## 1
Amino acid sequence: MTDPLAPGATIGILGGGQLGRMLSVAASRLGFRCHVYEPGANPPAGDVAHAVTTAAYEDEAALRAFAAGVDVITYEFENIPTAALDLLETLRPIRPGRRALAVSQDRVAEKSFLNGLGLATAPWAPVDDAAGLAAALAAIGTPAILKTNRLGYDGKGQARILAPEDAPAALAAMAGQPAVLEGFVPFSAEVSVIAARGADGQVAAFDPGENVHQAGILRTTTVPARLSARQRTDAVLIAARILNALDYVGVLGVELFVTPQGLLVNEIAPRVHNSGHWTQQGCAVDQFEQHIRAVAGWPLGDGSRHSDVVMENLIGDDVHRVPDLARESGVAIHLYGKGAPRPGRKMGHINRVKPRA
Ligand code: ATP
Ligand code: MG
């Protein structure tokens, strides 16, 4: 695919969660149709997409039919089974490409890639068993965090090791899966950069946001982040390095730790990102439209920030605050159409907006 997609074309999205939902809305505003592929029943994106396939990622016939009905394929989460991607990429372009997925599906591959670019991360070591963990702890020390190598999200698959005697329980929490030990970073803040790269190599970054997590889950993102001009530049340069190195097309999220020694990369996400939701009210073109523009081969839009925004996730029972929030001025409400609230379940988010200070 070299020519820009014309309105009326169909964009295939792997994954039907809230990110797929908001991508579908953005795509429809540009005149595209979205076809969502999701194994689970009644996905949030299904309410707003043109078509939904409910099938497993192992269902070859369903994957072929899905690809036949779309012009380009993108995704809202990085843990798509490799065999499905192997098949799909023979049928339609996948944007962002396979390298971005390979690097972000696997923490060892991700950290090796980042360090190979000269970007700093927390000290880390791969851990497969008790002997490996002992060796890693001897090298890295405590406090540290043990994380499963694959399939982690919202802090799941992680165990803190405050002192060496916590090691056996942390290893047990990995349930036999390969893991990575990371030194605990005493960061002064967490920030993220959401950046995009077009099919022509053009790069645009949104203003970095400052993130607060609770129990491993993003709670709020505030723009502007409290960063010096130098840190701000570093954050954007880091994102641009990664985008170019991956020959990336689409939106990428880069999570960073702010330390006195500079910015460390925590992880990258090859997709629109929760910490970029503020762009919906903070910019003329938000991260969802920017991603759709990139995968459709359109020029990137103007993502400069016109407002100050605090994005707050509505997690679990937070959603019961919606009737009160709906009475507040300056609050934009985004709900994901999910069923019953459960602890830790992202039900929606709000953006509190003020004119740029
Ligand atoms: P998500 O995909 O939701 O961002 P995840 O499960 O992949 O999450 P991480 O980003 O690795 O998890 O970790 C979640 C949070 O835990 C981080 O944002 C940070 O607050 C804390 N954390 C993770 N690793 C470290 C570390 N090495 N030092 C200090 N804090 C950490
Ligand atoms: Mg993270």
## 2
Amino acid sequence: MKRVAVLTSGGDAPGMNAAIRAVTRAALAKDWEVFGVRNGYAGLLADALDPLAARDVGGIIQRGGTVLGSARCREFAEPAGRAKALAHLAARNVDALVVIGGNGSQSGSASLAREGFTVVGVPSTIDNDLYGTDVSIGADTAINVTLEAIDRLRTTASSHHRAFVVETMGRNCGYIALMAGIGGGAEVIAIPESEVEASEVAERLRAAYRRGKTHALVVVAEGAKHGVHDLLTLYGEQRASIGFDLRLTRLGHVVRGGVPSAADRLLATRLGAAAVDSLAAGRHGVLVGMQRGEINVTSLSEITGRMRPADTALVELARVLAK
Ligand code: F6P
């Protein structure tokens, strides 16, 4: 009999609950005991673990956020913090941990694995920047939320012959901006992996106005260095020659909120169950991911410090189609 604990860590992502449910029920189906850790790694340090039964994870598959709570926990990055967490797990005879989270969280899992604990990571971050998986839980919903905002802004932009800058989330990675920008037919997409200078954005808007477009949409990832500030300053100086009036909408944490999409529920369900299968097969110290539509595993040591690269062909495609 195994005793497995599950936690959600870092920025919450829609679909985390579906993953918690899948881990719990897949583990119970193997006659294992399951514990839910409250508030991510902080809960391991505080010994805040509760047993989870099948009914405890009922009615959560469609809920956003995480019923377990989440946190960013600096103490866990230190060896002393992890030693405290491991002591709590040992005292409860918990012999395996499933960590549902993004880059920072999986660095924590990699450290635990290096220190000899049995751990499996499940990729969950709206940023979709984790190496070792094509897609992480939450990214699809975040794209859809951003896209809905873009679609709504387009109608008002068009009515007033305005340009809109829409800033979406994505700290070091422009995946959400790129995908939603393409889906929303944006004139310009600015992401950290493919920066666009403010002067070039202004030039493209000017050109769009001269071509007779009734509106223009600029989608910017929050992590894009030349971001919104540079653009607004320059726009103030060149407004008359650009043609469009400009408005800014910052989506912020709205992008992370609300119910998970069908794709995220399915992904989370498959990955959560696969994490348990991986533990049962003795494959641990790995991230369970999805590559080319198939479940795969990648060593946690391999993903640490790396980032999923942006699809530069898509960046170019977006530029060509914006004409
Ligand atoms: O990592 C996911 C993410 O939503 C990023 O896109 C964003 O930059 C960050 O988290 C925000 O962090 P916090 O919720 O701690 O403000």
